[in-house]
Design goal:
This protein is an alpha/beta fold. It has helices at residues 20-33, 50-57, 83-89, 99-104, 109-121, 134-138, 142-153, 183-201, 203-208, 222-226, 243-253, and strands at 9-13, 40-45, 62-66, 93-96, 125-130, 165-169, 211-213, 233-236.
């Protein structure tokens, strides 16, 4: 991490876990566990828990995010949630382009871009996910693919709006599998993402943008991953569902 130039952010992606009641209990445990953290701490909960999360975290150092957002402001999109709805709830962050959304719900690079732009236009901070699957890594096209995903996701996003964008590198083969990219692999791709940002927006924006690693980051490997200069935090899945495990990663990012 390079805390002199950019913010370290640890964000928990709860996925489809925790009822609103269970979410409130977890947040009650998290608040004292991450108090005084030396990095920004975000929890991204299911839609059903967002109102409770916003209320519970008021006055604390925890920031609340959603796991997805639709690109239209309103309309006949049964089951979807707009950026304005999230803002009205008091939500601050949203994730776009997570590999599970791409894999199971047919999201494309183009719709990820539309969601990202809609969220930014509404005033949300956006964690944009990019990453390769196992076959693509074995084919040696990781950097080309991540460059493509990053460029398309940020199409039409201004340099000023980049102040509200975080890029999360998530190798799909390491999500929920227990496999983790080595610290060298994580650094290599996060550095490649920063290079793309420099090409798009200039070095100043690239230097200031937080680039996270996501993909089975846990208390055991967080120190090594976060020691890399271009890894500015983590988007945490399973470990974010346990207060002690999540707090350990937050502590690692605060060093």
């Amino acid at each position: 991490m390079d805390k002199q130039n950019r913010k370290a952010i640890i964000a928990g992606n709860w996925k489809m876990n925790k009822t609103a009641t269970e979410a409130a209990e977890l947040i009650d445990a998290l608040i004292p566990a991450v108090k005084g953290a030396g990095c920004e701490v975000v929890i991204c909960t299911p839609f059903t828990s967002l109102a409770a999360a916003v209320e519970k975290t008021r006055g604390t150092n925890l920031h609340v995010g959603a796991e997805n957002v639709h690109f239209e402001k309103s309309g006949a999109y049964t089951g979807e949630i707009s950026a304005d709805m999230l803002v009205d709830l008091g939500v601050e962050y949203v994730i776009t382009g997570h590999s599970e959304r791409r894999q199971y719900f047919a999201e494309t690079d183009e719709t990820v871009n539309k969601r990202t732009r809609a969220a930014l236009a509404a005033g949300l901070k956006v964690i944009v996910c990019v990453g390769e699957n196992l076959a693509q890594r074995e084919q040696g096209v990781t950097e080309e693919l991540v460059r493509l995903q990053t460029k398309i996701a940020l199409g039409g996003v201004s340099a000023e709006e980049m102040k509200n964008v975080v890029i999360a590198y998530e190798p799909v083969w390491a999500i929920g599998t227990g496999r983790t990219a080595t610290s060298e692999q994580a650094q290599e791709v996060c550095a490649a993402i920063r290079k793309v940002l420099a090409e798009l927006y200039g070095q100043a924006v690239a230097t200031a943008t937080t680039v996270q690693y996501g993909g089975s980051m846990n208390a055991a490997n967080a120190d090594e991953l976060l020691a890399k200069p271009d890894v500015d935090g983590g988007l945490i899945g399973g470990a974010s569902l346990k207060a002690d495990a999540f707090a350990a990663i937050v502590a690692a990012a605060g060093k």
